[in-house]
Structures are given as C-alpha cells and as structure tokens.
Predict the 3D structure of the following.
Amino acid sequence: MTFIAARLNRIKPSPSSMAGQRARELRAAGRDIVGLTSGEPDFDTPPNVCEAVVRAMAASKTKYTDVGGTPELKAAISDKFRRDNELAYGPNEIIVGTGGKQIIFNALMCTVEAGDEVIVPAPYWVSYPDIALLADGTPVVVTCRPEDGFKLRAEDLERAITPRTRWLVLNAPNNPSGATYTHDELRALADVLLRHPHVWVMTDDIYEHVLYDGRRFATIAQVEPALKERTLTINGVSKAYAMTGWRLGYGGAPAPLVKAMVKLQSQSTSNASSISQAAALEALSGPQDFIAGRTRIFQERRDKVVALLNQMPGISCHRPEGAFYVFPSCAGVIGRQTPAGQVLASDNDFVLYLLEAQNLAVLQGEAYGLSPFFRISFATSMEKLEEGCRRLRLACEALR
Ligand SMILES: Cc1ncc(COP(=O)(O)O)c(C=O)c1O
C-alpha cells in the first residue's frame, strides 16, 4: 500500500528532463560535463518578442484570460495556420496551452478510454507513450527502420490499425531521427487513414520550421483535406522562436474536441500565462525571416556533426532532414569492452560509459523506442559540439 496512485507506476520520468538535471548536478559537483541532451535552441528569444512582453505588462495584460487563449492570439494562430499550412481553423477550433506537451496531454485525456490504442511510430518523442499510458490507453509502437529513413510505411500503418485504434501520432520533422515526410509520403499514409474512419491523427508539427536542404514542410490535413475533421494539428513557439521557457503551445482541431480540451484545461491549469500569450502573439505575427538564418546555422552544425560521427569506429549516422538532433547507430560498439573491463551490452551501457569515462552526456535510443542508437542534440555551439565529438571519438577508440 502506497500513497502514490497506481497510474504513476505505468510511466517513467521524462528521460530528457532527467538527463538535463543529472548533467546540472554533476556540473555542480565539479565535473567538467559536456551536455548534448538539451532539446532547446541555444539562441535567444527574438528581441521584438521580449519588447512586446514589456508593453503587455505595462498594459496590465497580467490577469486571467479565456481558458483556451486570448481572442488576439487565437486570431494570430488562425492566420499562421492559413499562411504556413493552408489550413482554415476558426477561433472555436483552436486551443492554446502551456506548451505543445499540454495540448497532447489534453487530447489523449479527453479521448482515450481504457484499452484504446494509440499508434506511435518509433523512434518517438519520449512523452507520447507515457501520456497514452496515463490516459489508460495502450501505446502501439511501430518501428520505423533506418533503411526507410525512420519513416512510417503505409503497409506498417495498415497492419497496426485495429478496431481499438483511437489515434495515430505523427511527428515530423521527428525528434529524435529528424525524419520528414514529403507530400507524396503523407499521401500514402492518408490513403490508409481514409480506409479507417475511426482513426484520428495527432500531428505534432513543432519542428515545422527546422527543415534542411531546401525541403518544404507539409502536414497531413493539408495534404488530405478530408482528414481535417479527425486531425489535431499541434504546434508551438518553443522550437522555432527559441521560447521553450515561455511554455506556449497550441492546437487546431474540430470544435467538439477543442471544447472538451478547454473543459479539461479549465479544471487543471486554466489559461496559459497571459504574458506568454502576449509573447506568442508577437512571435507568430511579427517578423519571420530570422528563422531561416537560424535554420542555416543548425544545418552547418548538422553537417559537421554527421561528418565527425561517421569517422568514429563503431558509429554510423544518417543525415537528418529536419529538427536539431542526430540519432546515430552504436551497433558497432555493442559487445566491445571498456578500459575498465565492462562489456557494453546496450545503448544504455554505452551512454553511461560516455558519461563516466568522458564526462559526455547524450541520451540512449532506448528512451526513444529504438536501440542500439543514441541521440545528440546539436542545438548548441559548434565549439561544444566539436568538444563533445572529440570525447565521443576518444571513448570509441578506447574500446577493445
Ligand atoms: C516532438 C516534440 N513535441 C513536443 C515537444 C514539447 O514542446 P513544448 O515546449 O511546446 O511543450 C517537444 C519538446 O522537446 C518535442 O520534441
């Protein structure tokens, strides 16, 4: 008998949040840690956003707002969906929450009954399966193979759908693999979904603007308008505008789903911070051109890191198409022995070895549903990336 409810036993703490905390603790204890775990841009929130917030505070925009977001912000989100995604969402089809994460949480809590299935392609962002479990659902993990660019294939989606399927979760550009879907690839998935009208699609487009090599972004309700009536399109300001700490995300969906999510939010956190909403309003409606410049910098870092990784014994790395992570395979180091005599049996072992032997923090692929891989975030300075890669190479070269 414990005071903590059984549902908490179904989930684990977010591995990425925990890794960040562990790196901070080790640093505080005097260790010279290079941390490549953080999923947030190292850039600053744009100055126009900070200035708009000062104005909002001076104008006393510091009170409760409508639970689902201010009318001004919802109008800016509606404009954004039209401008970037050719999607028309009215104010009653938009909800603003405390980060994209809360939108996902709200949606699954509002729709998943015990035993309902949520299809999650792997590798996946760490939180989808655990939020589904909290909602009494059953995550159905579908592995996406490196040889398919870590993308969900239409035939694998078809096979995974059952009468209990509630949602398909799509996330592209993907955390951690960087996979993105072309218009035609989304078309193939949409064709499957059209045959299964009971399945809804949750598309997490939070890395929409972090896309490389001139690729163009597409989202599923845009590719197949007939799916819009059962799609939740999620986005937020964390990644594109370097606003992770402001905690502001949003979703567009059919009005009945939005109404349910607002009801749930009214009994949990209420409105997202009024000041963060003012910040997001400026981010979405102010200048957008700086985003391309930042993406170019991410692309240079990607190219550097991929080149360095592919020179290391036992490591091989694909070239991500978007987002700011690489997800290299460490299959070539599994079974090898560390200088301390430990045989590396998994990506978990490898990641711990990197931390112990080289003070290098990265994340194990197991947390993302695919092994043996690991994730490096390149949302950090070139200098730190080069130092991290130097340590990684030393660790790989020391294996027997
Ligand atoms: C794929 C994905 N979705 C959602 C989020 C959550 O973002 P937010 O800061 O808006 O809650 C993250 C954050 O890392 C992410 O990687």
Remarks:
- The chain has a mean pLDDT of 96.
- Residues 39, 99-101, 125, 171, 175, 204, 206, 236, 238, 244, 249 surround pyridoxal-5'-phosphate (CB under 6 Å).
- Residues 290-309 form the longest helix (20 residues).
